[in-house]
Amino acid sequence: MRAIEKVQEIRDARWFSNLTTIIIIAYASILGFKTLDEVENQYDLFLRIADYFVTIYFVFELAIKMVAEKRFLNFFKSGWNLFDFIIVAVTLLPLESSNLAAIARLMRVFRILRLFTARPELKAIIDMLIRAIPSIIDIVILMFIIFYIYAIIGSFFFMNLPSGLWENFLVSMLTLFRVLTFEDWTDVMYEAMEVYPWAWVYFVSFVIIAAFVFFNLFVAVIIGEMQKLQEADMKEEIHEDHQKLDIILKEVQSLRDEIKQLKDEK
Amino acid sequence: MRAIEKVQEIRDARWFSNLTTIIIIAYASILGFKTLDEVENQYDLFLRIADYFVTIYFVFELAIKMVAEKRFLNFFKSGWNLFDFIIVAVTLLPLESSNLAAIARLMRVFRILRLFTARPELKAIIDMLIRAIPSIIDIVILMFIIFYIYAIIGSFFFMNLPSGLWENFLVSMLTLFRVLTFEDWTDVMYEAMEVYPWAWVYFVSFVIIAAFVFFNLFVAVIIGEMQKLQEADMKEEIHEDHQKLDIILKEVQSLRDEIKQLKDEK
Amino acid sequence: MRAIEKVQEIRDARWFSNLTTIIIIAYASILGFKTLDEVENQYDLFLRIADYFVTIYFVFELAIKMVAEKRFLNFFKSGWNLFDFIIVAVTLLPLESSNLAAIARLMRVFRILRLFTARPELKAIIDMLIRAIPSIIDIVILMFIIFYIYAIIGSFFFMNLPSGLWENFLVSMLTLFRVLTFEDWTDVMYEAMEVYPWAWVYFVSFVIIAAFVFFNLFVAVIIGEMQKLQEADMKEEIHEDHQKLDIILKEVQSLRDEIKQLKDEK
Amino acid sequence: MRAIEKVQEIRDARWFSNLTTIIIIAYASILGFKTLDEVENQYDLFLRIADYFVTIYFVFELAIKMVAEKRFLNFFKSGWNLFDFIIVAVTLLPLESSNLAAIARLMRVFRILRLFTARPELKAIIDMLIRAIPSIIDIVILMFIIFYIYAIIGSFFFMNLPSGLWENFLVSMLTLFRVLTFEDWTDVMYEAMEVYPWAWVYFVSFVIIAAFVFFNLFVAVIIGEMQKLQEADMKEEIHEDHQKLDIILKEVQSLRDEIKQLKDEK
Lengths: 266, 266, 266, 266
Prior knowledge:
4 copies of one chain form a homotetramer. Chain A is 81% helix and 0% strand.
């Protein structure tokens, strides 16, 4: 029992989460520089050692978190713990010498995602984004309808253009996404206008509608969500004030009644 | 009478609108993949069946909505019902074998617009956009004036440039719209600067004015509209508080008068 | 005296300003289509007549506004009247046959600016923009400092690049403005990186700083200004409530004093 | 003692700071035009004189600020004074004839930064930006994680593409930054899609996630910070009102108690 409390103390200590953060960032930097060709040859041994060390540290850290739980299975009840466990487990698989070695090495990149577990502020932003989804979902559906109609019309009329940008529905969707980002959209338009001179109506209307609906509504919803969070306390106070005023009004009125009684008694 | 109530129940049931939503989305996906060449050849029969099924379902659904009304003509009083009716009716026209077959097939795309009838949240966004129009209309007029003046000046000076981007008023408008989206606007400018070295004044001023007025005012108006909606209840409370304070003030003052009377009477 | 009142009635009538608006827009459309080559040849006479008619109408309208004033010179005291007068006067100058004929024709474009005089909503937006200037001026100065430093450094290091995009201070400013709009900025960067491999620091830092400071602060200030206007009444109410609460507090406290006196007297 | 007061008066005078502002801007303009080749040859003597004059003026201004302090070392306690001192001192170094002459000339550009010392409004904006950093830092970390993962995956799969845009981790980061600004991102995508047809998933997801998270959250945070500043006084009032209502409520309730006592006594 004593031992578990000691382990729990370590798990909840600030220095322990800071240490984890530093090790993740250091490891991520090393992994990044590993891709610079010249570096790889010179420091190869060093990189291998770093890799082993981080793997061992992660297993050790996970072990502490598991031991700290009174019941072993409680550990897996938290989504974030499960997330940690999977990331660590995957990089433990002995795939180095198999055909999957390259993929296995790539998986190690996702270790940086463990920063979310380390920094609560990042969790808060992710939570905010998740909470904003219901407000955004309808704009996304609206967006999909616009894309869908334009993609069908586009692939119907422009299908045989030499650039092949409209050769089927999916490619048309990709081309429209490109137009949405304004990336060389006039090249796409000018090519279509050579065959259909009125094609500018299609493109200009798409830019206005999609950029209007998508961009501005999107921004408005996100800003609205952020402000809801920030002004939550102010709104709370205003709402309480509203109720307090009702109480005061009642109090004053009953006061008046009593004064009246006083007067009448006389 | 009993039969009508039964039909109305079906019409208003959540499962009925969900079923319609799923069928619309499924059909839209099928229609999208129809444009992928290889798919069309293999699944052609399947696609035809899906088409017949959806047409029949839509007629059936419309019939339910019509029968559910006590008076048949009431059905057409709702704008959304009329909208539904037209979309269904157009795809019922026997144009398959005529010259308009291609157009008729294209019209079916607009069946996805029936999602608006199915999901009330989408109607709400459309309503919000419609309500925002009066606030936006003046910015659009302002924008048109800026475009107009620049288009006339542009087609006056740059009319004979080899690219033909300024050959008449309408083409100049399109070119300015392109500059507004920053799409290869420097190519247009550098071409003009070869003939008129001061042409950068024209382009830079347009980018600053149009992007400034258009983009920022636009965004500000949209965000303002969204916030009006979201803060409507808070403003309502603040306004009510404002009036309640007046009542309380009066009450307290008349209280004081009465106390004074009490004292004077003594 | 009677005649002046009649003229004033006409000047202030809604139908008169609406008529002016319609004539301005119709004339602007005609002027726009005049630049379409084929049209010019066929309808040349019609266009000339429209031109004469609008000129006469404008003189007539201006005359009404002048006559409606009790003292002739009062007319010129309003900035908007002066603005109208100059636009009309310039197009009256007999420059058709002189060397300035082309310029004179161009000046007619600015007649569309008379829409500002006709629609008060447009005046309001312009006023808002003018009022927002003091808030923006410091961001513009900040922006200028950033542009200035980067332009000097850029023209110092990249002066001899073959594209000539940095050949002197002014051209460097233009190139940086282009980078600010993200227009082919990587082409400019890759060219510089061939000579100075670290040049990406220059470009990436400029994009982050200039787009960060310029765009976001700019948007924030504009949105802030718009909200100040929209929430002015709510803030006014909150401020009044604040003062009313003080009055109520005083009233209640003096009430209590008086009650105390009542008790003490007993 | 009298002399110091006189000097302090000069230092704090509005005309003195205005004079400094004008001299800085005039000098910055001259420095800008110095880079125009033709100008340099003709006005070379004039430019040299301006340079000497500004150097002397800056030393003079700094001397006044130093003398105005009662203790000489107090001058260096202010960060802005130190900032001024370094800028002036660097340009005083006799590097004209040495190998560092070019660098020395470049350093003079930073004299424009002394505008910050002259205009307090600019200091305020810089302060606001510095205060906004804590709110932004987590979004920047989030951004870094997204960039990091995409850069590793990108350089893993696309390393051997002929354009060399993914040849190592750092170059991949730069390429992703380019994609973030939408600058010819489809060219990068189409090149990758020739080898990996599914590469559009990588690019489209990056554009959606990075532009979504980065741009919108960023804007939301900046706008939120600006509004916090602007609405600080309103929130203060609402908070004070909240507390005043509590006081009033207590007062009214104790009033009622006393009235009750009055009644009971009878």
